[in-house]
Write a structure and sequence with these properties.
Strand content: 15-25%
CATH superfamily of the largest domain: Periplasmic binding protein-like II
Radius of gyration: 20 Å
Structural class: alpha/beta
Shape: globular
Helix content: 40-55%
Distance between the termini: 29 Å
Number of strands: 15
């Protein structure tokens, strides 16, 4: 049985149980609101937040201006498996979690690393990718050769990102900007000493800007787990998203998408 059909059946059984076992007040609330998964399936659509300018995760095709990318297609595939339409809303990184908090989005699909701090506020799906963080400097920079060399250096990163947090852990002075291109341009123009980002994103940038005077100074040892954050209190929805990711892994769809956009498989640790 398809995942979407299983989810609909589970939702019906849950509703029956709640009607039979809950208090009259709770029954009324559930009938009016339902859980998030039920509401999404009743509407037949869900809303996903992502940046839209972070290649190859999500970006606009230069020829057609169509929104494409690994995360874009992952979100669409999850919608297919849940049996609903996906409405994508583009927003800057620094506002994505605020949009999730305010229920503007049902989930964020934007290469989000699982961290202890984020896990205290959000639930996370099954990981669907793994990130290796790299330290990027200008070609002529010989002062920074390791993460330890970041102490008292100026770095520029996406506001509130794990890359900014990591730079701060090594004693760097951090400045926040919105996009990967902005961070690298700051390094190229010598307005910053370094930046940190996902290795795959940096390599994608180099494929578009092969003459950019930048290089990788160091690679962080541990890979981070990339997953989909959802608001706490919606276990049925988070589980359904995880099941969709597991189905994509088992079918090979997830690996295929990774190889399409990253030219490698980043879906296995």
């Amino acid at each position: 049985m398809k995942l979407a059909n299983l989810l609909k059946t589970a939702a019906m059984l849950t509703a029956v149980c709640l009607t039979a076992c809950s208090s009259p007040a709770e029954q009324a609330r559930v009938e009016q609101e339902g859980n998030l998964l039920e509401r999404i399936q009743q509407k037949g659509e869900m809303t996903v937040g992502l940046e839209g300018d972070w290649a190859p995760w999500s970006y606009h095709d230069t020829a057609t201006n169509e929104l494409v990318g690994f995360d874009t297609e992952v979100a669409q595939k999850i919608g297919e498996k849940l049996g609903v339409k996906v409405n994508v809303v583009e927003a800057p990184w620094e506002s994505l979690f605020a949009g999730l908090d305010s229920e503007r989005y049902d989930m964020v699909v934007n290469g989000v690393d699982i961290t202890e701090e984020r896990s205290q506020k959000y639930d996370f799906s099954e990981p669907y990718a793994y990130n290796h963080t790299v330290l990027i400097v200008r070609n002529d920079n010989e002062d920074i050769k390791s993460f330890d060399d970041l102490k008292d250096k100026n770095t520029v990163n996406s506001i509130g990102s794990t890359y900014m947090e990591l730079a701060e852990q090594f004693g760097a002075k951090t400045t926040g900007v919105s996009t990967l291109n902005d961070t690298l341009q700051n390094v190229i123009d010598k307005r910053a000493d370094a930046t940190l980002n996902a290795e795959v994103s940096y390599l994608d940038y180099l494929s578009e800007h092969p003459d950019a005077p930048v290089k990788i100074a160091a690679t962080y040892d541990d890979a981070t787990k990339v997953a989909i954050p959802t608001r706490k209190g919606n276990p049925e929805f988070t589980e359904a998203v995880s099941n969709a990711i597991k189905e994509m892994k088992e079918s090979g769809e997830l690996k295929s998408l990774s190889e399409k956009y990253f030219k490698s498989d980043i879906t296995e640790e």
